[in-house]
Write a structure and sequence with these properties.
By secondary structure, the chain is mainly alpha-helical. Helix content is 64%, strand content 4%. It has a single domain, classed as Cytochrome c-like domain (Cytochrome Bc1 Complex, Chain D, domain 2, Orthogonal Bundle), CATH 1.10.760.10. The radius of gyration is 20 Å and the shape is elongated. The protein binds heme C (HEC). The site of heme C has 28 residues, from α1, α2, α3, β1 and α4.
């Protein structure tokens, strides 16, 4: 009995851990297929010259925290993926929760032969908060600019 109990606990821990991990991938996979695959394709290869790949992407591997912000707030301007430059806007998807975003990143990090590990959840949340503040500052600046332009045309 002395041996069985720790063995049993360890086994239970392994089962719980792996089923939890599988669920993460399952949810990430289904959201990816329904909202990202339109552009990045189901196999993650993107669209030549227009949409960068997420399968075998050095950008994703090195910037997974930024990717969380791109998923929520979108991205525009030049971006270099595997040495190639892309410049098409990607719209943000504001209704995804922090957990859903983490699940998507964990899925693409480990799909199609990618082996980029799991996104650190706490850091990802902090990054999302920082991006929220930046987005808010951008909105205020644009608003101030609009008001200034309105005043100029009124004169
Ligand atoms: C409407 C098309 C479109 C959709 C939908 C879309 N993307 Fe993108 N994505 C792009 C484009 C275009 C870029 C490049 C942006 C640029 O040029 O600045 C990009 C960039 C990226 C990047 C960084 C570059 C790379 O390839 O590693 C990642 C990661 C990414 N998208 C993941 C996603 C995920 C995950 C989703 C779904 C939640 C998604 N995208 C939905 C078009 C899209």
């Amino acid at each position: 009995m002395k041996i069985i109990l720790p063995l049993f606990t360890a086994l239970l821990a392994v089962i719980l851990y792996s089923s939890c991990k599988e669920e993460t991938f399952y949810q990430g996979h289904s959201i990816y297929d329904s909202v990202c695959a339109n552009c990045h394709m189901e196999d993650g290869t993107g669209l030549k010259g227009l949409i960068p790949p997420v399968a075998d992407s050095d950008y994703l591997k090195n910037n997974m925290l930024d990717v969380a912000c791109h998923i929520r707030y979108g991205i525009e301007g030049e971006i270099v993926v595997n040495g190639k430059t892309y410049n098409q806007p990607m719209a943000g998807i504001p209704y995804l929760t922090d957990t859903e975003i983490a699940n998507i990143i964990n899925y693409i990090n480990n799909a199609w032969g990618n082996d980029y590990g799991m996104v650190p959840f706490k850091e990802m949340r902090e990054k999302l908060k920082a991006c929220e503040r930046e987005e808010e500052a951008k909105r205020l600046e644009e608003r101030a600019e609009r008001i200034k332009n309105m005043e100029n045309t009124e004169r």
